[in-house]
């Protein structure tokens, strides 16, 4: 995996405002927040995208993400928030180390904005075939 700013933060070469750390996970304040309290949660394990992350690191993040979210909400006095995780440049990933954004949403103007959700109706025959294919891949994994 290529060197990233998160690699340097994990090694202590770049300081951060640490929120949480254990042997598998580091959480820290984003230095370019889109809302007060915007926090990043990253695995210690280097992996560019979520599909490349080990089950152990994914489980470690999953077990602390709710706790960190609660701390962000209490510290900011916010009750609404987004959790965002992007994979690949076309999906708006800019740092190629898995990371989750916890972004407080104090009101309609602040926090993560969504320009719309391009939803379509599912084709149920295609959906059944796709779900079967995914189950087969999961059985192999």
Topology order in helix (H) and strand (E) letters: HEEEHEEH
Largest sheet: 5 strands, antiparallel
CATH architecture: 2-Layer Sandwich
Strands in their spatial order, largest beta sheet: 1-2-3-5-4
Give the averaged pLDDT, no decimals: 96
Gross geometry: globular
**What is the share of helical residues?**
25-40%
CATH superfamily: HIT-like
Tell me what you see in this structure:
With 141 residues, the chain is of the alpha+beta class. The protein has a single domain, classed as HIT-like (HIT family, subunit A, 2-Layer Sandwich), CATH 3.30.428.10. 32% of the residues lie in helices and 16% in strands. It contains 3 helices and 5 strands. The chain has helices at residues 5-10, 55-76, 124-140, and strands spanning 18-21, 25-29, 39-43, 81-84, 100-104. The chain has a 5-stranded antiparallel beta sheet with strand order 1-2-3-5-4, with helices on one face. The radius of gyration is 17 Å and the shape is globular. The two termini are 22 Å apart.
Summarize the structure.
This protein is of the alpha+beta class and 141 residues long.
């Amino acid at each position: 995996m290529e060197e990233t700013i998160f690699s340097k933060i994990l090694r202590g070469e770049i300081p951060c405002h640490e929120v949480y750390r254990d042997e598998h996970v580091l959480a820290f304040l984003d230095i370019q927040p889109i809302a007060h309290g915007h926090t990043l949660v990253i695995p210690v394990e280097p992996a560019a995208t979520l599909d490349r992350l080990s089950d152990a690191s994914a489980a470690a993040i999953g077990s602390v993400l709710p706790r960190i979210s609660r701390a962000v909400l209490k510290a900011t006095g916010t009750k609404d928030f987004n959790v965002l995780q992007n994979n690949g440049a076309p999906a708006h990933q800019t740092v190629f180390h898995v990371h989750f954004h916890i972004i407080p949403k104090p009101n309609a103007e602040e926090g993560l904005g969504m320009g719309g959700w391009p939803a379509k109706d599912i084709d149920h025959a295609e959906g059944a075939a796709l779900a079967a294919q995914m189950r087969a891949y999961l059985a192999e994994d």
